Amino acid sequence: GSDLDLAMTDTDSVLAKLSDPKKFFENFDCYMDYSNYDEDHPKFDQSNKAKLGFFKDELCGKYVCQEFIGLRSKCYALNLTNEKSNESKEKKVCKGLGKAAIMNRLKFNQYKDCLLKNTTFRHEFHSIRSKNHNIKTVLIRKKALNYADTKRWIFDCGIHSVPYGSYIIEKYGG
Prior knowledge:
By secondary structure, this protein is α+β, with helices and mostly antiparallel strands. Helices cover 18% and strands 40% of the residues. The longest helix is centred in the middle third of the chain and has 10 residues, at 108-117.
């Protein structure tokens, strides 16, 4: 395998599987913003705080990602373990769904089933809306998790993908 398997990137973050973290940080440390680490952490440094072009460790140096499920842009889940206490934690992101619904209703296994079994999960939640200066509470029914990513071409394995228009599609897939 390679030294680095890229799982996802976002505007200011990257998630990758590292075969040799020490080697990676020797080459990549200069691009990191460690300002979100605890002050007693050896890597804590505020010199790159909020500077353009730097990446933050979304796990703040506290957690190790055991499993990652990425369904599409802004819709992913991480199964995490705290390095010190060995406690498990989930980080779930699902754009367009309320924070309470993500925290209380979406489960890591639903993300996993969605990816591996091609299932779709719908969720309902209440929201406050205003129309013509009239405020009311509405019930919203949304497709929360969906296995189909309409912006990427997915390989036969169902895991790896490239953006539509990529030369790789013609070369390897069709």
